[in-house]
């Protein structure tokens, strides 16, 4: 189904046009970045584990009636996804204060946020993804007030689904990023949901189980990604040698 027409190459994924109308091909690469691309590397198997975990979570959300762009698996690092008109917002749901929330605001590391906090950034690398509020989003005419409400409600619903599931696996969902797009005016989850877009802590030890291991040199990145992928999916991911 691939016609090999490159549409977009991001920091860790590449999007190709498909021969099938309305479908795109999303390839998870082994590239890894941090600090707005200031730190870069390549980790064999990273794309495979992120693809597997994203697939697992997309299927989980679909089973809960939450629409996503996922269609089917093409190989261990490639998915067929719906072509969406992407909304240039990053929706970050935070259950526990960490990362930039602690650096930029007077929260303490590990502070539980109840209810969860939604932070929305403009997806714009040239401006370093500035934080927005609802008024700015509406003034920029990015989405309507009703669409913004749908996005927020969906993000919180996803948070409840993932938080409950991960807690049963001994994993604390600290925070995670979502991106949304529209297909025939229906808002759907796009992009990915993986260790690259989530902050996960071991519930018992507080050990990082996500890209923070790479950001802050906390250990072996691929051992972490492999272990977490297997833990999340119950061993469904193909182990990369």
Residue windows where pLDDT falls under 50 for at least 5 positions: none
Tally of individual helices: 6
Q: Quote the average pLDDT.
A: 96
CATH class of the largest domain, anyone?
Answer: Alpha Beta
What is the string of SSEs from the N terminus onward? EEEEEHEEEEHEEHHEEEEHH
The whole-angstrom Rg is 17 Å
Q: What strand line-up does the widest sheet have?
A: 1-2-3-7-6
- Helix % is 25-40%
Overall spatial form: globular
Architecture of the largest domain, CATH level 2? 2-Layer Sandwich
Number of strands: 15
Per DSSP, what share of the residues sits in E-state strands of 2 or more residues? Answer: 25-35%
Biggest sheet details: 5 strands, antiparallel
Our count of domains comes out at 2
- Derived structural class: alpha+beta
State the distance separating the first and last CA atoms. Answer: 28 Å
CATH topology annotation of the largest domain: D-amino Acid Aminotransferase, Chain A, domain 1
Task: Describe, in short, the structure shown.
The chain has helices at 46-63, 100-104, 134-139, 145-168, 212-215, 221-233; strands at residues 2-9, 13-18, 23-28, 31-34, 39-42, 70-75, 78-82, 85-86, 89-96, 112-122, 131-132, 171-178, 180-183, 186-189, 198-202. The strands form four sheets. It has a five-stranded antiparallel sheet. A five-stranded antiparallel sheet has the order 11-10-9-12-15. Strands 8-13-14 form a three-stranded antiparallel sheet, with helices on one face.
From the structure above, extract its key features.
241 residues; alpha+beta; Phosphorylase Kinase, domain 1; D-amino Acid Aminotransferase, Chain A, domain 1; five-stranded antiparallel beta sheet; 6 helices; 15 strands; globular
């Amino acid at each position: 189904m691939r016609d090999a027409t490159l549409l977009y190459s991001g920091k860790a994924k590449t999007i190709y046009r498909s021969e099938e109308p309305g479908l795109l091909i999303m390839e998870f690469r082994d590239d890894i970045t941090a600090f707005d691309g200031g730190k870069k590397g390549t980790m064999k198997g990273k794309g495979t584990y992120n693809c597997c975990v994203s697939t697992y979570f997309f299927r989980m959300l679909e089973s809960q009636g939450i629409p996503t762009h996922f269609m089917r698996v093409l190989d261990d690092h490639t998915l067929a996804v719906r072509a969406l008109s992407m909304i240039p917002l990053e929706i970050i749901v935070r259950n526990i204060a960490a990362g930039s929330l602690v650096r930029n605001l007077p929260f303490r590391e590990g502070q539980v946020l109840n209810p969860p906090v939604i932070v929305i950034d403009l997806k714009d690398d040239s401006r370093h993804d500035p934080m927005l509020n609802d008024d700015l989003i509406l003034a920029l005419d990015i989405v309507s007030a009703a669409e913004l409400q749908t996005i927020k409600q969906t993000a919180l619903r996803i948070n409840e689904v993932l938080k409950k599931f991960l807690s049963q696996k001994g994993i604390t969902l600290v925070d995670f990023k979502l991106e949304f797009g529209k297909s025939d005016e229906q808002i759907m989850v796009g992009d990915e949901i993986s260790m690259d877009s989530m902050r996960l802590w071991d519930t018992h030890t507080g050990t990082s189980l996500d890209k923070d291991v790479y950001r802050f040199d906390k250990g072996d990145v691929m051992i972490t990604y492999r272990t977490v992928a297997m833990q999340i999916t119950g061993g469904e991911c193909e182990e990369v040698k």
